[in-house]
Structure formats: structure tokens, C-alpha cells
Design goal:
This protein has about 200 residues and is α/β, with parallel strands linked by helices. The chain has helices at about 1-10, 30-45, 60-70, 130-145, 160-165, 190-195; strands spanning about 15, 20, 55, 75-80, 90-100, 105-110, 120-125, 145-155, 170-180, 185-190. The chain contains six helices and ten strands. Helix 4 (about 130-145) links the parallel strand 7 (about 120-125) and strand 8. The relative contact order is 0.16.
Amino acid sequence: MRVLLEKIAAEGEVVAGGVLKVDRFLNHQVDPHLMKRIGEEFADQFRGERPTKVLTLESSGISPALMTAYELGVPLVVARKRRPLTMTGEVYRAEVYSFTKQEANEIIVSRSLLDGFDRVLIIDDFLANGQAALGMVEVVRQAGAAVVGIGIVIEKAFQDGGRLLRSRGFRVVSLARIASLADGVIRFHEEVMNG
């Protein structure tokens, strides 16, 4: 997705510890036009899988996941990191470790929102070690539903998450694949492949 690669190259910033900061358009300030394009792309990629729900993890995945759900005409389910007072009844739970925040969180989804008839498309902003995606896969598994694909806005292809998910048989579509952040320079997988 050329527009996304250009946005990352122009506005992305590498910070300490191999973290790619994209808070000017993806996860703090959000570019709605870019999110619309991302939603259209994911919908085109996964429409044939006939998803009935889109699942994401709060909060950075919400923007691309919402636009994807909109384009597919299905509900968006947001896995929560904290149980609000309004969430009553039984929940599905999984533990997720955040590389960026260096902490583990329990994620929860109300049992009333997913069931065994659902075909779930997981959408997230980043894929590094794969822990967030695996947590969402576990929630879907507990519901008896099927994961029909995993859409990632930015994959750190130099980390193990993509290989891990693909080795478990999941179809993973990443719109931008980062080959390296070494020396503070963003290098795309596409450049490695072509160059």
C-alpha cells in the first residue's frame, strides 16, 4: 500500500528500543483519509472469507478496524484491557504482553458478542512478537468461533510475530512490512525484496 509506506517514511520516527513512532497518523493523531484507505484494502483482501465480525484490541487498533468493519458491513468488537462497570456477565479472557509498554494485560470480551457461528477477522495496528494477535486468537477460540484472517497495518518483519502466526496456519496480510529500524532508519521489506 504505497500511500501507507510514504506516510511512514515521511512521518514515522524510530525511537529507543526499536520502537516505530507513528503517532502523527495512526495511534495518537489519526489520519481519517488514510484509515479509510486502509479499511478498503483490508475489506478487499478478506471479503471472500465472509467475516461476520472484526475484532481488535483497544486502543490503537480501533481506527483501522472500525474502517474495515464499515467497509465489510459487519460489527466491530473491541477487546478491552480493563473491565468497565457496564460490562456485566461472563467474559472471554486472554493475557497479552505489550512490547511497547513492557507490561502484561488481560484482555476481555463479553461472551454475548462472539459465538460459535462467528467468522472473525482480527485487525491490529502493529505486529511485532505476535502476542496481541495470539491473545485475540485465544478469545476467538474460547468463543468457538473461527479466525478467518489477521490484518496488520505495520508488521515489524524482523521480529518473530509474523512467522509465528503464519506457521500456525493463519492468513496474515500486512500493509507495510518493516525490514529494519537499525541506526534509526526505516527500511521496508519491499525495498529489501526489490533491492
